[in-house]
Each structure stands twice: as C-alpha cells, then as structure tokens.
Amino acid sequence: DAGVIQSPRHEVTEMGQEVTLRCKPISGHNSLFWYRQTMMRGLELLIYFNNNVPIDDSGMPEDRFSAKMPNASFSTLKIQPSEPRDSAVYFCASRAGLAGYNEQFFGPGTRLTVL
Amino acid sequence: GNSVTQMEGPVTLSEEAFLTINCTYTATGYPSLFWYVQYPGEGLQLLLKATKADDKGSNKGFEATYRKETTSFHLEKGSVQVSDSAVYFCALSEDSGYALNFGKGTSLLVTP
Q1: Where do runs of H (alpha helix) occur along A1-115?
Q2: Which label site among A53, B60, B67, B75 has the fewest CB atoms less than 10 Å from its CB?
Q3: Cβ–Cβ under 8 Å, residues B22 and B104
Q4: What is the pLDDT of residues A55-82, one digit of tens each?
Q5: How far apart are the C-alpha atoms of B74 and B64, rounded to whole Å?
Q6: Nearest-CA distance from B58 to chain A in Å?
Q7: Is residue B51 a contact partner of residue B64, using CB atoms and an 8 Å limit?
Q8: What is the rounded CA–CA span in Å between residue B73 and residue B54?
Q9: Alpha carbon B98 to chain centroid distance?
Q10: Residue A61 backbone zone (phi > 0: left; psi -120 to 50: alpha; other: beta)
Q11: pLDDT above 60 (res A85)
C-alpha cells in the first residue's frame, strides 16, 4: 500500500491567494483527519470525516478554511484567502473504522508558506 | 476536557543512554494511549499504544505502561541510538471518541 498521499509537498504562495491541499487516504479507511502543525501551537485537529461526512469541524480556524471529501479516496483542504499566519505543515491522516484505539496513518504533510 | 501534557524538550542524550519521556493525561472516560514518533521531514507514525489500564505497549525497544492511578504513560528505552533522534508525541483517544488529543511533542537528539 502506498500509504496516505498528500500533494503538493511544498507550497509557497502570496497573501490573498487561494491554496488547495489534497489528500488520498489509504484504501478501505473510512475516517480522515486534517491536522495543522506549527511550532507555537503544536498539532491541531482541523476537521474529521467519517464515511465522507464531516463530523467535527470545530478546529477549523475561520471561514477562510474549508474542507471537502467528495468520495472515499479524495479530500481537499482549501484556504481562501491565505494569510501569512496560515504558514504551517498540514497533515492528512486516515484510519480504518471508528474506534479511537485504532491507529491513524499520517501522510508526509504539505509545508505551506504564505508570503 | 481531554488533554495530554508532555515534558518539554529538547532532550539530548548520548548513545546507549537510558531514555524517559514523561506523559500525563486528563480524560473523562477510559482512553486509549499512544506514542507517535515524527522523524525529520516526515509525518507521524505510531510507535506503540495501550488500550486499558496496566497494559504495556512496546516496539523497537521502546516501552510505555498505562498507569491509571497516576494518569501517566511514560515512554522509556533502555539504550537509545542515534537513529532514535526524532520528535515524540504522546496522545490519547476516548474509546467512543474519534480524534487524537496530542501533547506538544518532545524533541530527542541522540549524539554518538
């Protein structure tokens, strides 16, 4: 299995531009998570999907952030408009099943820099 | 609410030294506990886990025991290697929950 795939791996953009991050979860996994990692705040859960349905988006910072999961094999996280404070590493993770004790598998992350 | 507190790093050790990274948690129910490791430039990967009190998780020479009485899940390794240099995250998840609550991570640097 290829694991969780994220693209792009690095993104540099200017303030005000739209940014779209992409994630392909492991086949057969029905839970998908988006996290953001910064030095100041550590790892933060942004949003969680189960069977393609958003379950909890309380971690999404503000309306500039949106996430979709149109099917079981693809999810996007969009920032519009982007701001310098959005600079971070964004991770996607997937998990088989609903149980909290099941392992989450993380992608390699997308390093976003907003100038 | 649920939370995880880890000792702050960075931790610097010589090769073959003994490692302990402290982790304590607060939870309303009976969580599962995890240690994830992040090597430079990579995503997190599961190192070990324990799903109930007194369980011991182990992997690659690392161990951690789920201590309900002290709400702790300390990570230990008897003899660290340079290749163990990474950031270690303690995390919890409620059995009926859905997400991981992470600690802030502890950076470990092992020198030859």
Answers
A1: none
A2: A53
A3: no
A4: 889 899 889 999 999 999 999 999 999 9
A5: 5
A6: 15
A7: no
A8: 10
A9: 19
A10: alpha
A11: yes
Q: State whether A106 and B96 contact (CB < 8 Å).
A: no
Which token pair is A92? 């996607």
Q: Concatenated DSSP letters for A74-92?
A: EEEEEESS--GGG-EEEEE
Contact B43 A50 (CB under 8 A): no
Mean pLDDT of A37-62: 90
Query: Cβ of A109 under 8 Å from any chain B Cβ?
Result: yes
Predicted confidence band at B97 (pLDDT cuts at 50, 70, 90)?
Answer: low
Whole-angstrom Cα distance, residue A71 to residue B74?
A: 39
- Per this entry, what is the length of chain B? 112
Of B41, B51, B105, the CB nearest to A101: B51
Nearest to A6 by CA among B90, B98, A20, A14: A20
> Which of B73, B98, B101, B102 has the highest number of chain A CBs within 10 A, making it the mutation to test binding with A?
B98
